[in-house]
Amino acid sequence: MDTDRGTAADPLDVEVAFLTPAVRNDLLERWNEPQRRYHNETHLRAVLRAIDALGDEGESFDGTAVRLAAWFHCAVFDPTESENNDKSAVFTERTLDPAAPVEEVARLVRLMGGHRAEPGDLNGCVLSDADLAVLGADPETYDEYTLDVRHEFAHVPGERFVAGRIAALEGLLERRSIFLTRAARDAWEKQARANLNRELGLLRAGGTD
Fold first, then answer.
1. Per-residue pLDDT, 5
2. How many CB atoms lie within 10 A of CB 13?
3. Fewer beta carbons below 10 Å: N end or C end of the chain?
């Protein structure tokens, strides 16, 4: 599955219903805040491309709600806090035009806190898989992602970070499948498990600063 559409329009420039120029500009400013190293504009672009790729592979979902949720899912991001998804959802509810699918977009934003969409939740499954698509990237891209995440959480002491990271990786690997849609499993599952197991082995062997 191709998520690197070099010849395609920048997904940040693609029109999305209810995403007005003012809201788009406000969100882009948020996505480019200085505390972000991974959860930034590059990540947003990658999520939107992954959503498009899943749609191209036949996954069915509400394109407007899912793309709006992608734009809003890290509207509030403070790596020292733990309620970013809830705060982003509240921001969504306050910001979106009432004519938009506000309730569904806010639900999807909250869902990204644990990536635990139910099998019949088409919108949630697509957004979750798009958000986690980096796990199935090539090893070099995956390693850059892990470094960027560590940079964002530099305030967390090394041993505590490693323990939390190990728990997160183990939780993903214990799932029957990391990805929830057929298209994502076909495209990214095998590489994601290889990446996660490799990182897990490195962390168990020596940890990281």
1. 46
2. 7
3. C
